[in-house]
Amino acid sequence: MALRPRGKVVAFDEHVGLGEIEADGRRYRFHCTRIADGTRTVEVGTDVTFDVVPGHLGRWEASAITTVS
Q1: Average of pLDDT values for 28-52?
Q2: Residue whose C-alpha is closest to residue 4's, from 48, 47, 50
Q3: What is each CA distance from 26 to 10, 50, 52, in whole angstroms?
Q4: Is residue 63 over pLDDT 90?
Q5: Residue 1 in domain
Q6: What is the CATH number of the domain that holds 15?
Q7: 55 lies in some domain
Q8: Residue 59, domain member (yes or no)
Q9: Residue 69: CB partners within 8 Å, gap ≥ 6?
Q10: What percent of the chain is predicted at pLDDT more than 90?
Q11: What is the DSSP letter of 19?
Q12: Is the pLDDT confidence value at 22 over 90?
């Protein structure tokens, strides 16, 4: 089983539901519907694990986002 990337939420706009995660020097965009526990918000600075999936316009995006305790 491959390890999931671990990163930190560096931006999140609650009004439009879009955010970014930074991991290993890369940034991955995400929509709030990609948060695994069903919540629709996440605090900036939260440590998370996630899957990387093909997204819009050929960019990689974060999916199945889970907070790390």
Answers
A1: 97
A2: 50
A3: 11, 13, 11
A4: yes
A5: no
A6: 2.40.50.140
A7: yes
A8: yes
A9: none
A10: 90
A11: E
A12: yes
